[in-house]
Amino acid sequence: MCAGWSAASPAAEATVTKAERAEHVLRRLGELYPDPPVPLDHSDAFTLLVAVLLSAQCTDVRVNQVTPRLFGELGGTPVELARQPVAKIEAIVKPCGLGPQKAKAIQKLSQILIDEHGGQVPADLEALERLPGVGHKTAQVVMAQAFDVPSFPVDTHIHRLAQRWKLTEGRNVVQTERDLKRLFPESSWNKLHLQIIFYGREHCTARGCDGRVCEICSTLFPERKRPLKTRKA
Ligand code: SF4
User: What is the domain partition of the chain in residue ranges?
Assistant: First the structure.
């Protein structure tokens, strides 16, 4: 149905299935962001893990301003960061917010990587989720971007856009992740989650839209009249 498919009549919208909407989103985002860069600067799995941890309730831009100093002054390996006083780490990561918790988590997870994983970041979702300061989304980002294991980390942007595109009811990020994994081919996940984030930041902001202004929604829902409400993550 998608090839040559456009903002057609209600009949066309009525026949647009969730699978067809997903297919359109996948194709269109692939055209707009063919090679989405990883937004957090890093040189290996460990510096990525620390950067993702720091990005909780913080912008990637801010994290990318902080990490060069952290890794440059205190070190970019578990061995170097495990022996740093928490206060020293906190002094540098403070601009990312939640300074005390994040500093403590960085020092502690560095020690655990030494004690339990030979100083390496484990390419294992559950092992990652057991590390302090590392939740399901952070673990999935590392699995996708450091180890190229198909993953679909759902952040606030993805949760919001998936609802706006009616790809999920979006009661919570767990359900959104499950629905998106069912709708999109596994081979697309690692790129697609970044493409959705980029589209969310560039076009589909939390405050900026009610689901009727840009080409994606106007193609998927040509007859949408009422503004759309979405659930927060
Ligand atoms: S119309 Fe609005 S909600 Fe829909 S994709 Fe565009 S920016 Fe997002």
Answer: 10-32+152-220, 45-147
The CATH architecture one would assign to domain 45-147 is: Orthogonal Bundle (1.10)
From ligand 1's centre to the CA of 215, what distance in Å?
8
Task: Tell which CATH architecture fits domain 10-32+152-220.
Answer: Orthogonal Bundle (1.10)
Question: Which is catalytic among the residues 18, 108, 155, 181?
Answer: 155
From ligand 1's centre to the CA of 97, what distance in Å? 30
Rounded to whole angstroms, the Cα distance separating 219 from 3 reads: 12
- pLDDT, tens digit, 9 for 90 and up, residues 112-149: 999 999 999 999 999 999 999 999 999 999 999 999 99
Indicate the pTM of the whole model.
0.88
> Is 152 buried (19+), middle (13-18) or exposed (0-12) by CB count in 10 A?
buried
